[in-house]
Design goal:
Helix content is 38%, strand content 16%. The chain has 344 residues and is α/β, with parallel strands linked by helices. Strands 2, 3, 4, 5, 6, 7, 8, 10 and 11 form a 9-stranded mixed beta sheet that branches. A two-stranded antiparallel sheet has the order 1-9. One of its GO terms (molecular function) is hydrolase activity.
């Protein structure tokens, strides 16, 4: 099934009708620095085999920003530090509706962490209990202890982490590179998954444009001015300002103070995507700079055997902050159809 609207495929608006954003939080969190992590960071990283903060001062600066950004979230009902073969994975649980049903597990974009979900949590908790994950090997409260050398390792650590949750299966919700991470798991080790929802996933259905990679490189050099990083991040989010916003400060600090030691994710082949037997909801941002949006939507429609593909025509790559309620409505409808199907 496919659609092309902000809610349920009922029609898109013009760029002028894009909704207002009362808080920057999620608006740019989506990627803030996805391209920087894929491009520029790889050119300046040091020789350590695992991701790490480059100094004690940088560590403290980042976590001061992280704690400020966490204040935009409600108090978690549980904080979990889950040990895997690749390090300790930090998760937060926020109790929500239908506790007897499989929860949502959120994977943020590259160079971001759990606070990026602040604007989405109120509407998502009306659907299910929500877990958030700080991705292993990224700036955040997860701690990488072993190299993540390829896509198989990326799937392995996440599978190990999800396997330790009390719920036997989860609905994975991935944003940007978090969407790639979710699909990578669905392709390689889907045992813990009930479904996958992808929010403008990077490197999943279409290649990243060279312009995006090129723009990321000068913005990703830690000793370059902060204004260069802010300018890049604003561009990825459709021109929105990023100064003096807690979650933006957190992501910028992570970019500056954390050495990423991950390979560039491999773009999935059509054959790999066709192997996914899970229900998949793919929501594509029509104005994304992370891929050619029509091409990405077409590839998703052509390859997902149980796919629902929607395009939010006026959304930038920061789609989750621009349309939090519409996303929640589409996720709720998607899960309702799955529940009805399982009952038949």
């Amino acid at each position: 099934m496919n659609g092309n609207a902000p809610t349920g495929g009922t029609g898109g608006g013009s760029a002028a009708s894009r909704p207002s954003r009362p808080r920057w939080g999620i608006r740019w969190t989506v990627i803030g620095l996805v391209a920087a992590a894929l491009g520029g960071w790889l050119t300046v990283r040091d020789t350590s085999p695992v991701g790490h903060f480059t100094s004690a001062q940088g560590h403290d600066e980042f976590f001061a920003a992280y704690q400020r950004a966490m204040e935009d979230l409600p108090e978690p009902d549980a904080t979990l530090d889950v040990r895997t073969d690749y390090g300790v994975v930090r998760m937060y649980r926020f109790d929500g509706a239908a506790p007897e049903q499989a929860p949502l597990v959120f994977l943020p974009g590259r160079a971001s962490a759990s606070p990026v979900l602040a604007d989405n949590l109120p509407s998502l908790r009306k659907i299910r209990t929500v877990y958030t994950v700080d991705l292993l090997g990224e700036p955040g409260a997860s701690i990488q202890t072993r190299p993540i050398r390829d896509d198989e390792d990326q799937a392995r650590w996440l599978h190990q982490a999800l396997s330790q949750l009390p719920e036997p299966r989860v609905h994975l919700l991935g944003l940007s590179i978090g969407g790639w991470t979710a699909m990578n798991l669905a392709i390689r080790q889907p045992d813990t998954l009930a479904s996958v929802t992808l929010l403008d996933p990077a490197m999943t259905f279409a290649d990243m444009p060279w312009e995006t990679v090129a723009r990321s490189i000068p913005a990703s050099v830690p000793w370059f001015p902060k204004s260069w990083r802010d300018g890049f991040n604003s561009w990825t989010a459709g021109g929105a300002p990023v100064e003096d916003v807690p979650v933006a400060d957190m992501i910028e600090s992570g970019m500056k103070n954390y050495a990423l030691e991950l390979l560039v994710p491999s773009r999935f082949s059509a054959e790999q995507l066709r192997t996914v037997g899970l229900p998949v909801l793919a929501i594509i941002a029509g104005e994304s700079v992370m891929h050619n949006s029509p091409d990405a939507a077409r590839q998703a429609e052509d390859t997902l055997s149980r796919g629902t593909v929607l395009t939010y025509h006026d959304a930038s790559h920061a789609i989750n902050g621009e349309y939090p309620d519409e996303i929640a409505a589409d996720v709720a409808a998607f899960l309702s159809e799955l529940d009805e199907g399982s009952a038949d």
